[in-house]
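Hi everyone,

Forwarding the result from last night's run.
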Amino acid sequence: MADQEEDHGVGAIGKLIEVLKPMNPDTRINVLQFVFKELNITIPGATGPAHIPPIVPTIPHASPAQPVPPAAPGAITDLRSLREQKQPKNANQMVAVMAYYLAHHAPERRDYITPDDIKRFFPQAGFELPTGPPSQTLVNAKNGGYLEQIATGQYRLNPVGHNLVTHRLPAGDSNSGGGTRRRTAKRAKKATKKKKARK
């Protein structure tokens, strides 16, 4: 019986060497450490079970990790960045900015917003929470022309709201066109009146 067990041991050693020989040294150590841990083997002379460091898979010829490039200037990385860029002046405009962020920039995007989003995202954006119920804030934004209701408690940014965020905010921005054109027209009218008065 003892001879048979000894033969099995010799055979196991041979198989183990055969399996480990083609591996690189790091992989061999990882495999042996894992086996020691699984079989609860204590190294002779040690007072307790061998300390097994975490097994890290060895990936042959792995290229070093490439550094993540920094975000481009003006890139939207979070809702606060978008709010600072668009500078909404009231809760209705902030709702439109929030809905746009969730639809186009959020890590988990969706094309609708709910009252709970006001309580969650207004503080994230650094924007003051409205004093009324969040549901009423969404109704106000809808009545302001920026949202459309798609289900109970769910609203989606409509084309007017989309254009507000992408073309008309911040207010007075040259890209919006409207404010600049109005100011130019007023100046032209004043200049015309002055000329007529001099005549």
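The chain has eight helices and two strands.

Cheers,
N.
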